[in-house]
Amino acid sequence: MAMEGNDCTVISWGAMVHVAEQAINDCGISCDLIDLQTLVPWDRDAIVNSIEKTGRCVIVHEAPKTSGFGAEMAASVQERCFYHLEAPIERVTGWDTPFPHTTEWDYMPSPARIADAIKKVMEE
């Protein structure tokens, strides 16, 4: 766990962990930030335990939203944590377009987009 909090679970991996950490610090909401070290296998138990505590989940990754690993993760979380979720799962991802190398920073999730998703699940 990269950060510990009580209000929301943010799950990320790779380069997006640092961006998610910045977003959490910027928005001022107490969040668990789970830094997945591996995707196969991924630490379902740590995620389930965190969501049971917080009731909210934001998944952050740089791949497109459609068919990204975050979609599989969201489905699995929904199956295992349905009665603990107080808001729909939010995913902050790259756009559903080919990866544009010249405008990479517009494509990647930004701290502002992540903070907006955290605030959205807190309002539900």
From TrEMBL:
The keyword Hydrolase does not apply. Keywords: Oxidoreductase. It comes from the Archaea. One of its GO terms (biological process) is response to nutrient. GO terms for molecular function: branched-chain 2-oxo acid dehydrogenase activity. It is an enzyme of class 1 (oxidoreductase). It comes from uncultured marine group II/III euryarchaeote KM3_63_E12. The keyword Cell division does not apply. Residues 4-114 form the Transketolase C-terminal domain. Its EC number is 1.2.4.4. Pfam families: Transketolase_C. This is 2-oxoisovalerate dehydrogenase beta subunit (BkdA2). Its cofactor is thiamine diphosphate.
